[in-house]
């Protein structure tokens, strides 16, 4: 009988992220996989409760397929990554509002080479919004 739950964001150490792809396509006990990944068995059982793929036999022993578990670890790592959103011309990220906003009263100052600094105000909270830009031009301040 296979058990699985919804994918959740478990905290997985860097060590496990490195070692998990090396698991063999065979069934492991919780102790064996915990030793291979250098994690406490209780941590592994917590991951099983959070949706890591496993199955139980008729004696209620837990078995973990190495390749399925490695795929689950990779999926957990990728689910934590935030999607990249390209900022449009004249936009910046307001740390106070925690959102992307159009920069008001923006000023461009050269920093070094082709890098420039765009500094302005947030239209929502009035806080300062900063943004680094390459090849600064008038298109960055299109809103006026």
Question: Any key phrases for this structure?
Answer:
29% strand, elongated, disordered N terminus, alpha+beta, Arc Repressor Mutant, subunit A, 2 domains, 144 residues, four-stranded antiparallel sheet, three-stranded antiparallel sheet
Could you walk me through the main structural features you see in this protein, from its secondary elements to its overall organization?
By secondary structure, this protein is an alpha+beta fold. The chain has two domains: about 1-80, Orthogonal Bundle (Arc Repressor Mutant, subunit A), CATH 1.10.10; about 90-140, no CATH class. It is built from four helices and nine strands. A four-stranded antiparallel beta sheet has the order 1-3-4-2. It has a three-stranded antiparallel beta sheet with strand order 7-8-9, with no helix packed on it. A hairpin with a 4-residue loop joins strand 5 (about 90-95) and strand 6 (about 100). Helix 2 (about 30-35) packs across helix 3 (about 40-50). The radius of gyration is 24 Å and the shape is elongated. It starts with a strand and ends in a 10-residue tail after the last strand.
Number of domains: 2
Examine the secondary-structure arrangement and name the CATH architecture of the largest domain: Orthogonal Bundle
The major β-sheet equals:
4 strands, antiparallel
H-E order: EHEHHEEHEEEEE
Provide the CATH topology of the largest domain.
Arc Repressor Mutant, subunit A
Count, helices: 4
Strand percent estimate: 25-35%
| Number of extended strands | 9
Helix content: 25-40%
**Poorly predicted segments:** 1-7
> How are the strands ordered across the major sheet?
1-3-4-2
- Category by helix and strand content: alpha+beta
